[in-house]
Amino acid sequence: MHPTPRLVLLATLLLPLGVLAAITVVGPWAWLAGLGALVLLAVFDMLLTWERSRRLTLRLDAPVQMLLGEPAQLTVEAQGEPGLRLELRVDVDERFEAPAVALLELPASGRATLGLPLRARVRGTLEVERLWARWSGPLGLMRRVRSMEIGWQVAVIPNVHRVRQEALAFFGTRQLETGIKVERHLGDGTEFHALRDWTPGLDPRSISWRASARHRRLLGLERRAERSHRVVLAVDTGRLMAEPVDGMSRLDHAIEAALLLVWASLKAGDRVGLYAFDERPRVWVEPAGTLSRYEALRQSLARLPYTQAETNFTLGLTDLATRLNRRSLIVLLTEFVDVIAGEVMFDALARLSRRHLVVFATLEDAQLLRLAQRAPSTLEDLHRAVVASDLVRERESVLRRLRRLGIHTVDALPGRMSSTLLNRYLEVKRRELVG
Fold first, then answer.
1. Cβ atoms of 278 and 265 closer than 8 Å
2. Is the domain covering 1-157 a CATH 2.60.40.10 domain?
3. Among 39, 69, 87, 433, which is least packed, fewest CB within 10 Å?
């Protein structure tokens, strides 16, 4: 229990009476009367405030699980004296965006509910720690604060809703059906399906001369798209991937893109695996098929750690190569800053790309692009624009060099990474580049 600003103001107004008491005979009695009245009012208000607290009950509900990047809601239920105005604040883990102080006034029924927005900055298990409530007495002279220990654990997982929406947008498209439904068009795919009579207008390269000689008529090979490719998602969990971009870390953007690619690859009949590394290998999940594999891969991606370790591409990619005994599609989700950092990757990627098809995926920095393209108005703006332009050019030079090595590159803005990466995968499937 403590005084309000109103009580402090009234006590301050008694100071002139104190001065009057020092210079006149009547003054002391007036000052003591005013001070006594103020003390009585404060005690009376304190008793009423205490009575209000006895009748006040508070309850807080928090979600057990929430999606990264999407707001959830804390629900505060209050029951007490009608007309009571409460100031509510919730202490949460520092990795949450803390809700602002909220006001709740109890209606005539004496019961009310208030929702407080809650948003997480990172994945993991975060805690809603304590609920604070503050209210004043009817006269507004005394104020009481009550705290309630919560200790509620909230699991923050990757945003599967966004992944599901994008997956539904692609579901049933002709590109996605390639590799799921049998493609009976000659020349499509690499997997043998059947022999058929060759007729003019068909691709002469499909003629099977051995079968034609055996049957004494021209026969063509009918092929279909192969379904059992191996797709390995290699996720960099190093220091650069922990940097925030558009409210989430680069790693979390990469995880969302990886989840969509996992779903599409399993739907297409491919065998999907996961590899994560930074200064050393962290996670290895053997490639396997069927959509039932999706949940296990989702949980593995959700547990990827945020680290401040420097990424060791030589160790990480060499270790990955030793785990793969056949040609695979490797999707590397990573980040680099300049040519010097890119040099470290080239040798390891060049060796990996000799046997496997590699897709190198990075997240474009929209803020850096804006700085490079903005017309400078001051000398400081000019310096920033020059530095940003140099970084953009160096980044593009690294990507061009990777493309010359035969590596497919994806450099997309955060909101478009998932769809861009999926389109590249569908293109690889359509062109049968893995087989």
1. no
2. yes
3. 39
CA distance 272 to 194: 28
Residue 28 has pLDDT above 80, yes or no: no
Q: Where are the beta strands (DSSP E) in 62-166?
A: 65-67, 72-79, 85-92, 96-97, 102-105, 111-120, 124-136, 142-157
User: Which one is predicted more confidently, 50 or 417?
Assistant: 417
Q: How many CA atoms lie within 13 A of 145 on its CB side?
A: 9
- Tokens read off for 293: 């594999």
Beta strands in 237-324 (DSSP E): 244-245, 248-249, 271-277, 281-288
Rounded Cα–Cα distance for residues 165 and 160 (Å): 9
Q: Does domain 160-180+227-430 have CATH number 3.40.50.410?
A: yes
| Host H or E run for residue 313 | helix 313-323
pLDDT of residue 259: 92
Nearest-CA neighbor of 28 among 7, 39, 14, 42? 14
- H or E element in which residue 333 lies: strand 329-333
Closest CA relative to residue 123, chosen from 71, 160, 74, 158: 158
What are the structural domain ranges in the chain?
1-157, 160-180+227-430, 191-224
